[in-house]
Amino acid sequence: MKINMWKLLIVALIASTALVGCKDERDNFMVDDTISFINTENYATVSVYNEKYDFPVMKNGKGFSGATAHLTVSETALDEYNAANATNYVTMPENCYKFSATTLKFAKDDLRKIVELSWDETAVLALDKSKDYVVPVQLSVDNGSVQVSEGLDLLIVHPKLSSVSMEKTLAASLLPSAAGDAISCDGNVVLDNPISVMDVTVNFTIDNSLIAAYNEANGTDYKAAPDGFATMASATSQIAAGQTSAPFTCNFDSDLLFAGSELKVAGNMLVPIRISSTSVDGLGISNGVMYVPFTMDKELKGPWTLLEGEENCYAKDPNNGGAAWIMQYTADKLFDGECTAGHEWISWFATQIEFPITFVVDMGTRQVFTNFLISDYATHQGNLREYEIYTAEEYDGENTRWNLVASGKRDYSWVNPGTPAAFQPEMTYNYPVQKYFAGRYLKFQIMKAESSVGDFLYGRGKLADVQGVGF
Known about the structure:
Layout: H1 5-21, E1 34-36, E2 43-47, E3 52-60, E4 67-73, H2 75-85, E5 89-91, E6 97-99, E7 103-106, E8 112-119, H3 121-125, E9 132-141, E10 147-148, E11 154-160, E12 163-166, E13 183-191, E14 200-206, H4 211-218, E15 223-224, E16 230-232, E17 236-239, E18 245-252, E19 258-259, E20 262-263, E21 269-278, E22 284-285, E23 289-294, E24 298-300, E25 305-308, E26 345-346, E27 357-376, E28 386-392, E29 403-409, E30 427-432, E31 438-448, E32 462-463, E33 465-470
Parallel strand pairs: 1-10, 2-11, 5-9, 12-22, 15-21
Antiparallel strand pairs: 1-3, 3-8, 4-7, 4-9, 6-8, 9-11, 12-13, 13-18, 14-17, 14-21, 16-18, 19-20, 21-23, 24-33, 25-27, 26-32, 27-30, 27-31, 27-33, 28-29, 28-31
């Protein structure tokens, strides 16, 4: 069969025309090659103690071009950076650092080169501590063969001295325990710049010499706790390599606040926990103290259990008439922790009252009063305001060994109760403690009345409640 040459020629021409029309446009959507650092903030900080910093130089884009990049230390670039960022960095002396390479050759398909910047820890630690030294690394490319990405041609490497500090300067206020319960306070030490090459051991001490300066600076009047009251659960904490914090615990022994039943320290206390040293030479200590305050202002009030004095009330007055409203005025209302209408105590009314009027209560747990709060009831103010108050560790009836903690006449000022009187607030008065004794049992004595005539016939009167503060 003869081949028609003309037909073959026509087919070949059509095929070549089609090939010309199918142009490869796959690269149209890819960007040209560029070289850059990857830190968009132009800044990297690392602990001096790590002794090196590895950073990448990247080539991105189509991958059609090779290039030779150079790294230089540029004081001019640093001056511009300082001006733009209100910093005051200084270029580190050349003898302190070195690069693993300053010329980087990228083939067409290379994407990344890693550079190691290392420094001599001893030389850096010997530099002037008043200056902040950095290594300003400038990136450039030979002959402009590849563009350097705008704004990513400078890297400020800051080999920074690390420092350790307390996470908190002032801990939450604690209360001592009159009952000897275990008390502790937890805290953290923090490292501002992690050290990847070693653990950091932090040592602690209790430093009462700092209290005077704290009081002067803060207008406070804290006292030092007795020796041994505060002890560290461990004398050290360890910040693991690469980590930035570690916990610590301080324990407190409230029994050491007492000599027998008597409190040694009358007033709020402050325990300064200080970072005394670390295991790393040259490591700074910043904000190295956590202060733990102890206050003695816990609200102490009933309901407490009445042991003596049940008969000393209007409800038990043999001549009270027996009316239902009278029967609510019982002696336990004086220690029920309430100062509202219906919770007041009224003494006998119809017969001569014998002074002192004595009450004894069981508070349920060992407590220390630093101040008493004694409340009149609004309709009867100021007739019963001279007292003696005692506490005891154990109760044995008339054989109880009582410690006198407060005595004398409290303040008084008349406030017109208005109408209706029963809904007016009570008047609460401070009654200072003179001696600080711990005790579970409280004896409250009303020594005398101010008047025995008129509405205060026979020395009768009302009180809303006996309370206090302490711990």
